Amino acid sequence: MTxxxxxxxxxxxxxxxxxxxxxxxxxxxxxxxxxxxPNGAGKTTTIRMALGLIRPTSGWVEVLGRDVARHRSEVxxxxxxxxxxxxxxxxxxxxANLQAFASVLGGVAPSRxxxxxxxxxxxxxxxxxxxxxxxxxKQRLGxxxxxxxxxxxxxxxxxxxGLDPAGIVEMxxxxxxxxxxxxxxxxxxxxxxxxxxICDRVAIIHRGRLVTVAPVAELLSGRGEFEVGMEDPxxxxxxxxxxxxxxxxxxxxGGLITRSPSGRGRDLVRFLAERGFWPDRVTERQQNLExxxxxxxxxxxxxxx
Length: 305
Prior knowledge:
CATH architecture of the largest domain: 3-Layer(aba) Sandwich
Number of domains: 2
Radius of gyration: 24 Å
CATH class of the largest domain: Alpha Beta
Order of helices and strands: EEEHEEHEHHHEHEHEEHEHEEHEH
Number of helices: 11
CATH superfamily of the largest domain: P-loop containing nucleotide triphosphate hydrolases
């Protein structure tokens, strides 16, 4: 598939401190790509280099087949970006805000304003002052600003920041509509449950280095473990830890997490029952993205931002 964005041995240091350290990943056309990492992991620095706002110390960022630092004037008109909260004029209407930002681009046809307002579901409220908008509406208007030039690549930094559950769903639906129109979306977010639902692939970085890049479905596919509900799970855990296949058995939220002697749930039930432990339930376990993230990054550095 066509590569839309790629980092090549990308490094950025501030003095002796590396913020981004030999970072390499690719984003393919038509996907929603999640970019994750703890606070201070280097995500915003990477995004700023991808937008040509700061120069790498070494390496380079390829956007739409060009080195963005050397070909900014060719590349950036084909890229839209929303970096954290959009800088909107609260006293102006939604449409007037778009017109103001369009003037910076040299003007946009009224029909394009209609298109983006319709796309972000703000056409019925376009004449209302932005100060009356909910946080979700403001975020969608910010995306509308980023879409004015009909970009091929959309880069969003924390688009769900501060949104309530309804606003998060609205943003999710919007991103899916954009991909259906053929756009590529690169999104940095700390709302991991939402990333799990919306993204095709994710890259996780920690202390400026790439930890993993993989399809979300592959990350969530599980480790061949089962969750067992039963009386006295602690005693069963002690038994399992004396086996080769159950050595990493552990308690989790009052239940028991373990592997099976054969990889099949019925053989785990048989093993436990023959030793006097009768399970109430045995379910194959899938990890969620938050568990994977915390495992890969050590749960360090103050959170998922």
